[in-house]
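Model it.
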Amino acid sequence: MLTTAAWLGLGVVVVTLDPDPLLHRGLFFAALFLAAFGAFSLLAYRLSFSLFSSKRYRGNVSRSVLHGLTTAIVITVAALLQLSRALTTFTGLLLFGTFVVLQVAVLVRR
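Modeled.
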C-alpha cells in the first residue's frame, strides 16, 4: 500500500510541480527513491520463491529489503547524474558495476 502511495506521489510531483525550484527536485528524488525501493523490494521478495531453491534465501524479507534498497539507490543516483548531465556511458557502466557488486554482497551476506 505504501508503494502504491509512493508511485502516486511520484506521479503528482511529475505532473503538477514545476521542475525548477530546488524543493520540487528534492521531492521528486525522494518520491522516486521511495517508489523504487518499495517496488523492487516487493519484486525481490516475490522472485525469491521462484529463483532460489535454498530455504535460506526463499522468502527472506531482510534480503529483499536490501535488494530493494540497493536498486533504489542506484536508480536515484542515475537520475541525479542525469540531472547534472554527468550520466555518460562510462559513468553508467561504473554505476552498473557498483550495482552488481552490491547485489552480490547482499547475496553472500549471512
